[in-house]
Description:
single chain, alpha/beta, Rossmann fold
Amino acid sequence: MTYRSVIVPRRGPPEVLEIAENEIRWPSAGEVRVRTLACCVCRPDIQARYGETPIAPRMPFVPGYAIVGTADALGEGVDGVIAGDRFAALTVFGGYAEYIYLDENDLIPIPANLDPAEAVTLILNYLVAYQTLHRSAKVQAWDTVLIIGASGGVGTAYLQLGKLADLTMYGIASKSKHKALIEYGATPIDYDTQDFVEVIRQAVPGGLDAVFDGMVWGYLDRGFSLLRRGGTWVQYGNPLSFSGLLRLLRQFVLHNAKPGGRALKLYGTTTLKFGRARYLEDWAVLFGLLEEGRIDPIIAVKLPILEAAKANELLESGQVTGNIILVTPELL
């Protein structure tokens, strides 16, 4: 018996993605075989394919940063999982596949009544937004914040969570995507025709409480002074290379050494390995918000898992507002 996955055999555009046949096997000790129901398509998938990351994966590899699926078979010693139960996982790699093998300890329990396509957006995109808002910047009601890249999967999560937190929001996005920002009460800034520094200085002369920047390069040096005294700039994007990581760490030191009480904080989900409890706590909050209808993930496109190349092309086009999700055929 076999299953299919989508692999990156070499660096390059979405067209390099190929479908591979794999022998299905019984899970090893402590391992669970999971049938994938939904997988988010995100910027790190694309960056890994091009090798734009501090530690690039070896070829070939299967992209796919976060999944929701059902436990299909249990390896020896697995005692906290029942076959048929639904789980999520922050996989980093491996999600573009009909099945994935995961350590029992990597599984995240989720409410059975949630739509897998909606739930999977919480595992990465909403988690990033929630943790940077509430753990990194520790926002308070009526704070004024700037969201750089406010129309993608993470950006729209910021809009919804920021509205729940009663924030005054400004968001940078192309003009064609301003409708979504306005819908959630954010003031849009068009990066093609407006200077965000000039706009913010005129609109918020007292300075911003927080900035959330997933773009990494192009905004920090000009924008850091827009923070008020005590304000926080949270950088959560991929620095794209090892030299970029070193450059980002230098900026971290230099900006935090500047007078004025402003802070630069770096965020990455790699800390999951060292603080799983707080991640589980935050995912539980997000699952509750979704169950209560207080957040409503924007899903721009749902495609079959094996059409990952098309999904990657759509994401790279920059024309999509919200999330692109790969799903098992019965969920289309």
